[in-house]
Amino acid sequence: MAETDPETMTDEDRQQAEEKKKEFEAEVEEARSDLKKVIDQYDEEINVIREKQASRRAEQAMWLDRIKKNEEARRLRHEEENRRIKEAQEKKKKEREERKRAMQNPNKFQPIIQDERVRFAKMTPAELRKEKEETLAKRVPVLDPESMSSDEGMKTLATEIHTRIMKAFGALFDLQEKEKRQKYDIKELTTRIESIQEEKLKASKSADGKIQKINIPFGEVNAEAD
Which residue stretches does the UniProt record annotate as biased composition, category Acidic residues (predicted)? Predict the structure, then answer.
């Protein structure tokens, strides 16, 4: 399209040309504004994505740290449980050996069954409370509050509580069985001791029937001829 010669342009032509120029410049400015909006929106979306990525990385780091702590706590509880089991086994073994020695030598049985009772009887209320607190601290694992902040943590906690309840009932059962065995052992040993005392009483009677004092495991008694 041939350009219009400015010298031959009428005022109307010049006015139309000026209006077209202004329209073109307005379109260019609008295009620039639209482009700037697109760029700003893109930058905003990029920033949102980056913030989400940073938040996700922080959350992942937090969960990894929590998992690591839970695993460490679980490992320590496992080691503590193994230690308690080993101590309990050694204690049971020692008790069996003591009962065996007591059966072989009834004269030593009384101190064995009284030592623990005497120890507790001599304790003050403060010492008994301390003994209870130390025992509970050894037997009851520490709860991890951070593990309760998620569904998985609650499931783990519920499992641990169930396990502890089962262990508590198991310990109660063991104590009851132990008490039954001890009562049986005491009855058996008492019968043997009484039998030995009777033999000593018979052997200590003098030929003239005089009363004599003899030593037996539970103190002195008077022996008298029939």
Answer: 1-10
Inter-CA distances, 6 with 9, 12, 100, 156, Å: 5, 12, 131, 89
Predicted local distance difference test score (pLDDT) of residue 205: 60
Q: b or e along 30-60 (b: 16 or more beta carbons within 10 Å of the residue's beta carbon)?
A: eeeeeeeeeeeeeeeeeeeeeeeeeeeeeee
**pLDDT tens digits for range 110-147:** 555 555 656 666 677 787 778 777 776 666 656 565 65
> For the chain, what percentages of helix, strand and coil (3-state, to nearest 5) are there?
80, 5, 15
Beta-carbon count within 10 A of 136 CB: 9
Using the 8-state DSSP alphabet, how is residue 124 labeled?
A: -
Contact at 8 Å (CB) between 214 and 220? yes
